[in-house]
Amino acid sequence: MPDTKSMIKDHVLDRPNSYIGRSVPRPNAKRLLAGRGTFTDDVKLPRLTHVAFLRSTYAHAEIVSIDVSEAKESEGVVAVVTGPEMAEVCSPWVGVLTHLEGLKSAPQHALAVKKASWQGEPVVAVVANTRAQAEDAIELIDIEWKELPVVADMETALDPETPLIHPELGDNLAWQRDLDAGDVDTAFANADHVIEETYISNRHTGVCLETRGIVADYNPGEDQLTIYHSTQAPHMMQSLFAKHLNIEEHKVRVICKDVGGSYGIKVHSYPDEYATVALAYMLKRPVKFIADRLESFTSDIHARDHRVKTKVAVSNEGEIQAFEIDDLTGIGPYSVYPRTSGIEANQVVNLTGGQYTNPNYRARAQVVLQNKSPMCQYRAVGHPILTLITEGMVDDAARKIGMDPLEIRRKNLVPDDAYPTTAPSGLPFENLSHHASLYKLVEMMDYDGLRKDQAEAREQGIYRGIGLATFIEVTNPGPAFYGVGGAPISAQDGATMRLDAKGNVIVEIGVTEQGQGAEAVVAQCAATALGVSMDKIKVIAGDTDITPYGGGTWGSRAAGIGGEAAVQAGKALRQNIVEVAGIMLQCDPSTLDIRENNVVDLADGNERMALAEVGRVCYYRPDTLPKDYQSELVVTRHYVPKQFPFAFTNGVQGCYLEVDTNTGFITFKKYVVVEDCGTVINPLLVDEQVRGGVIQGLGGALYEECLYSDEGQFLNGTMADYLVPMAAEMPDVEVGHVESPTLDSELGAKGAGEAGTGGAPAVVMNALNDALEPLGGKVTIQPFTPERILQAIGKI
Amino acid sequence: MKPAAFNYAKPSSVEEVLGLLSEYGDEATILAGGQSLIPTMNMRLSAPALVIDINGLDNLNGISDEGDRLRIGALTRHVEIENSELIASHAPLITLAMPSIAHPAIRNRGTFGGSVAMADPAAELPACLCALDGEIEITGQNGVRKVVAKDFFKELYETDAGDGEILTAIEIPKISAGYRSAFDELARRHGDYAMCGIAAHAKVDRDVLSDLRLAFFAVGGTPVIATQAMSAMEGKSVDDESIFAAQSALEDDLEPFDDLHCSATLRMHYAKELTKRMLTTLSARN
């Protein structure tokens, strides 16, 4: 592997006074702690109105008639709008992308027209002076429904006798993908052992502390829509709102201030949000929609509803010889727009088994429609499922031949020096470090010591288990993810940097802050590349009128892509500054550098001129510069990964837990994650990303489940009944790092946001099954509840 | 999640409360700590015409020593009870139960009387009162009356307090010499409503239990006093045989139900597991 660091002169990681690799406090933390953040609900505009939605109480029902006459007369009501009226202003959409060949979906409207297809679909919008008044008026709306047969169970969605959700589509199959690599049939035929299993990941959702929210304001005087939106992708939303309201894009400004968590939930476009924007357009006054917690459960996207049949072939010596998977996933009645609901299954097909040397791999994914809340991408898209089945299969194989789970992984993981390589699915992997990561994990968790403890505990009737889960992560996505399929999602991002007259620096960046610290990381990159201290930097993000056009924050791209854009902008601005400083100092600019807010001699760091002086001269006294010279103290640089479609990265999780075989309760004794996200920009933020991700993954592994009745009714849509992980039950997560920088950028940073979530369900399942093995128990259905654990060991 | 419009009153005496209750009937509701009422109003599961805020009734606050019993004002917050030396000394079962009641923020506002009046079948305190033979003081237009706990909890969310009455205090007999209490519950997450819970109280002579009370919660519409299991254990030493007998008797005592988080089968399994734990804990060998 070439070493780009030695190839690039003036490499950013060689900068003196570098902030890269330092746990710099987040500049925005103080504002948030002081309660001075601006979340969407904090935005209050003159003449503001509030919208509430009457949502379908049926999973599938035809709208026979709607009577809104009483609601219109209710106190404080400004407007009551039904689906057909809304459709005149806001055009419908179809959530397909061309690179997911064959994916089909039906036109979806902001408000249901003719029929509702899931419980929670918005049907009528009521705008009033207060949200309470809007809710009062909703109770006065009379809808006559005609119930339609419900498609709830994904297992029967494709049966010939199952009714069609959208008859015009011909069936309930939204998409199917088949992959066949190597020689799977021969491998299974010749295998010493073939182990089959069915793993189930139940549907859950991302619960954001700040629910979805949007404030839209239309100014007819300048034909301008201004939208305050809790979103991850402001430019994408700008494009979509403009398209569906038939307004020029530059007449739509999306402002995204503070966001209280997003996790992929806020990277999609939602019917109620289009409706809110359309209402502002119709009424020519601002309209606010803040999803309440109850409607969030049935209107936010859900994820991870998969049933996967697996088959693995292994030799007596522990060589994995073939993987075969059959994935079935139910995505609700529509493929979500614009990223589609095929991506999760696509990831499962693309990456299952990808960290292992085995070349024989067959996969089928069927993505079916059903009358439940729409499913789409949620943090670590597809990874929790594909890691669960991959690492489940590997443990199945190890158990069958009596090999230690660590040994079988060491034997079958692609060697670290074999990269770059290509997965059986055809995806190229640049430089993964599974062995180095596993080595570090084994040391950190004291694997041998734990095995000893486990054996001693078993003698006393205490059941403890060790789990391992290696994983691959998709981060820093290029245009291959969405752009090639026709989605208006920028793969590249830009940073504009400006030196002001007093030597301060403004950075405008296309990636957005979601509470994860993206602004801090961008500031660290900009400050390092330019040579200024953090306190001189102000980062502005989340405003389509101001920042460079960009993709926003998702797919672990903010640090790797936004950070690199900031590095390149910082370097370019430094070049411009030393150029003008060279003129002022009458020296060769190549002998100058910028360090700690001063222009200095490159060779010895001697201070030559403060940046404030450069600013003063360029802005206030340009007459003192040569007449044929124009200084440029603003630069913009962009970055998009070009060599690889994604910066795939990797990691491994290990946990040690104890099962109370009388109650099925588990207690974590140890939890370790080793993550390779390339260059670590801010260790504290990366560690907390990993920890937060683990907790979110453990939520899915142990607690979270969207429960539905056979009639498609969501049964547990409150925080009392939908169980999110809470501090008391959570382990202390130790985090270690291996750094394999991507050579696709100078910075070398890959993403870290998916690691914790992607690996947690697998590692817990493997640890549980390790603990339960002597009792003949095995769990395969996530979440791994006490009831399922006790059932697995025959206690109930 | 905004409540429907309602009227609000904050009376300064129990008499005033009773007047409003008789005027509005079941259109009125009482606001104490608000930990159950406010969410249900926000979800529009309840839409009272009048909310009577009793937080101005200072004489319903506090814990007092009444000789052979403790008196706890209905408005006393959980946190005060949790930290009370009087309660810890004379009604240790209540102190044991307190950390399991939701979370500190809820215990800061929630009231003892509110929890008892709500009669949630998964709540801890009703079962504790049943185990201790606590008495509930109810005040109405016709004066004050007291009802023993096992008669107070009638059905799911239904109590002996009638229309126009208000729960004003709870009285708990002080623990007698030679008696011990124990408490446990199994919840998916700490602070959740339990899948199954138990409050236990007995006279303990070495490992022999007598006058045993086992009160379960979250296994039926009301707290359930497991009389068969209690008599199976009465006067017996705590050992594998007696524990098994008590566990078996639960099949007659309990009729557990299914809900979203726990099947009836699992509840029964947990009831037996908790019984074993409680009997072992009560035994003086521990």
What does this molecule look like?
The complex is a heterodimer of chains A (about 800) and B (about 290). Chain A has about 800 residues and is an alpha+beta fold. Chain A has three domains: about 5-35 and about 490-640, Aldehyde oxidase/xanthine dehydrogenase, molybdopterin binding domain (Aldehyde Oxidoreductase, domain 4, 2-Layer Sandwich); about 45-150 and about 210-260 and about 265-300, Aldehyde Oxidoreductase, domain 3 (Alpha-Beta Complex), CATH 3.90.1170.50; about 300-480 and about 645-790, 2-Layer Sandwich (Aldehyde Oxidoreductase, domain 4), CATH 3.30.365.10. Chain A has 20 helices and 31 strands. A seven-stranded mixed beta sheet of chain A has the order 3-5-1-13-10-11-12, with helices on both faces. In chain A, strand 25 and strand 26 form a beta hairpin. Chain A is globular. The model of chain B has no long low-confidence stretch (mean pLDDT about 95). Chain B folds into three domains: about 5-55, Uridine Diphospho-n-acetylenolpyruvylglucosamine Reductase, domain 2; about 60-175, Uridine Diphospho-n-acetylenolpyruvylglucosamine Reductase, domain 3; about 180-280, CO dehydrogenase flavoprotein, C-terminal domain (Enolase-like, domain 1). In chain B, helix 10 (about 225-235) packs antiparallel against helix 11 (about 240-255) and helix 11 packs across helix 12 (about 265-280). Chain B is α+β, with helices and mostly antiparallel strands and about 290 residues long. Chain B is globular, with a radius of gyration of 19 Å. Chain B starts with 6 loop residues before the first strand and ends with a helix. Classes of the chains: A alpha+beta (about 800), B alpha+beta (about 290). The interface of A and B includes residues 665 and 790 of A.
